[in-house]
Write a structure and sequence with these properties.
- By secondary structure, this protein is of the alpha+beta class.
- Helix content is 43%, strand content 16%.
- The chain has helices at residues 2-17, 70-82, 115-120, 128-144, 156-170, 175-186, 228-234, 255-264, 272-298, 306-311, 314-326, and strands at 22-31, 35-44, 47-56, 90-93, 103-107, 195-197, 206-209, 213-217, 224-226.
- The strands form three sheets. Strands 1-2-3-5-4 form a five-stranded antiparallel sheet. The protein has a two-stranded antiparallel ribbon with strand order 6-9. A two-stranded antiparallel sheet has the order 7-8.
- Helix 4 (128-144) packs across helix 8, helix 6 packs antiparallel against helix 9 (272-298) and helix 9 runs antiparallel to helix 11.
- The longest helix has 27 residues, at 272-298.
- It is globular and about 65 Å long.
Length: 329
C-alpha cells in the first residue's frame, strides 16, 4: 500500500513542489478500512513543504453515507478559510489521473490534537483560559461560511428519531437513555434558520498550538446544515472533557466564554438553554454510538479491543444526562 501511494505522489510531486521536486518521509498516520491519512514532505526548489494526504479506499455512496465526500470536504475547508476560520489549507484535490482515488492534500499544521494533553499538559497553561472564547469565535466564522451544494439538513427531532431507531433495534434497555429520548422529544426547541455546521467540533478535532491556541479545525467529514447550537453543544458533551468535568467546554473552558466569543465574532446570540439541549442530545447520541461499538465487538463483527473500551463509556453519557436533567433541562 505504501509503495502505491508513494508512486502516485512521486508523479504528483512537480505539481506540488515545482520541477524536480521529490517526495520524502512518507508515513501513514491513521485511518481504518475505508479512509487513510498520510504525512509526507515535498522537497524541491521551493523548499520543503509538510503536507497531509487523506484518501478513501473503495467507493463512496452518497445515499448511504452519513459523511461527505472528500471533494465536498475540500470545498468545506476552502469555504471556512475564506471567512477566516483556522484550517489546514487545501493544496490539491486529487484528479482521476493522479492515481490516488478519492483524495485531497492539505498543509500540515503543527500542534496537539490529543484532548487529554490539551486539558492537562503544562505546555498549554498559557492558552487554555482563552480556548473556549476562541472556539466560540471560530464557530461563528464557520456558521457564516457559504456551504457547498448538496449538504444534508438535520434538526433535533430528526436526529432523535434516527438514533432512537438505532437504539430500539439494538435491543438495549438503559433507563437513563429511555428517559432522555422522551424528555428531549418533548423539549425540542423551535427551528432556527439552518447554517453550515462542522458537525464534529470538539476537543480532539482541534489542532492546538501552545503559543496561539487553536491552529486548525480538523475532520470535516460530518459537516451538514442545521441549528448553530448543535456545534456549540457538541463541544460541551462530557465525554470530550477528558477528565475535567468541571470545565464544560472541551475540558478547558466555561459556557459564558464560548457564547461571548460567538457573539463577539458576529454570531447571533444563542441562549445557554438551547446549547444545553443540544449538549444533552449530543450525549444521548454518543451513548447510542458507544452501545453500537460494544455490540460490534460482542457479536464478533469487530474483534479490536478499542470497541469494548469505547462501548463502556456509555456510562459517561448517562452521567452527563442525569446532571443536565437534575439541573432542570
Amino acid at each position: 500500500m505504501q509503495g502505491e501511494v508513494f508512486e502516485a505522489l512521486k508523479g504528483l510531486a512537480p505539481t506540488l513542489g515545482g520541477e524536480g521536486a521529490q517526495i520524502a518521509d512518507l508515513q501513514r498516520l491513521s485511518g481504518g478500512a475505508s479512509m487513510q491519512t498520510w504525512a509526507f514532505a515535498v522537497v524541491g526548489g521551493r523548499g520543503r513543504d509538510e503536507l497531509i494526504l487523506r484518501r478513501r479506499v473503495g467507493s463512496f455512496d452518497p445515499d448511504a453515507a452519513r459523511s461527505v465526500s472528500l471533494e465536498v470536504e475540500a470545498a468545506l475547508i476552502t469555504a471556512a478559510e475564506k471567512v477566516g476560520a483556522p484550517v489546514a489549507p487545501l493544496v490539491h484535490l486529487a484528479r482521476p489521473q493522479d492515481g490516488l482515488g478519492e483524495a485531497h492534500i492539505t498543509r500540515r499544521i503543527s500542534g496537539e490534537t490529543l484532548g487529554r494533553k490539551i486539558v492537562s499538559d503544562p505546555r498549554f497553561d498559557a492558552v487554555r483560559p482563552a480556548l473556549a472564547r476562541q472556539c466560540g469565535a471560530i464557530l461563528a466564522q464557520i456558521h457564516s461560511a457559504q456551504p457547498p451544494e448538496g449538504l444534508k439538513t438535520v434538526d433535533a427531532l430528526a436526529e432523535l428519531a434516527r438514533y432512537e431507531e438505532i437504539y430500539r433495534a439494538s435491543g438495549a434497555e438503559r433507563p437513563i437513555l429511555e428517559l432522555a429520548f422522551q424528555h428531549l422529544k418533548k423539549r425540542a426547541p423551535e427551528p432556527r434558520p439552518a447554517v453550515l455546521l462542522h458537525g464534529d467540533f470538539r476537543n480532539g478535532n482541534l489542532m492546538v498550538d501552545p503559543d496561539k491556541g487553536v491552529a486548525a479545525v480538523l475532520d470535516w467529514e460530518l459537516s451538514h446544515m442545521g441549528d448553530p447550537a448543535e456545534d456549540l453543544g457538541w463541544i460541551c458533551v462530557n465525554s470530550w472533557r477528558f477528565g475535567r468535568s468541571d470545565r464544560p467546554v472541551g475540558g478547558f473552558g466555561e459556557y459564558r466564554d464560548l457564547l461571548d466569543g460567538y457573539v463577539e465574532a458576529g454570531g447571533e446570540a444563542i441562549p445557554l438553554e438551547r446549547v444545553l439541549y443540544w449538549q444533552a442530545l449530543g450525549s444521548l447520541k454518543w451513548g447510542v454510538m458507544c452501545l453500537m461499538m460494544y455490540a460490534s465487538y460482542a457479536n464478533g463483527t469487530d474483534a479490536s479491543v478499542e470497541r469494548p473500551m469505547i462501548g463502556r463509556r456509555v456510562s459517561e453519557t448517562e452521567i452527563d444526562l442525569v446532571t443536565l436533567l437534575e439541573n432542570g433541562l
